[in-house]
Amino acid sequence: MKPKDALEISRAIGESVRREVLRLAGKRESDVTVGIGKDGTPTKKIDKVAEDIALDFLKDYDLTVISEEAGVVGEGGTVVALDPVDGTFNAVKGVPFYSISLCFSRSRFFEDSFFAYVMNLATGTEYYSINGKSFRDGDRIRVSGKSRIEDANVIFYYPERSMKIKRIRIFGCASLEICLVADGTFDAFIDVRGKRGFLRIFDVAAGLFIAENAGAVVTDEIGKGLGKKEFSMRERFKIVVSNKKLHKKMLELIK
Question: For residue 73, what are the domain limits?
Answer without folding.
Answer: 3-140
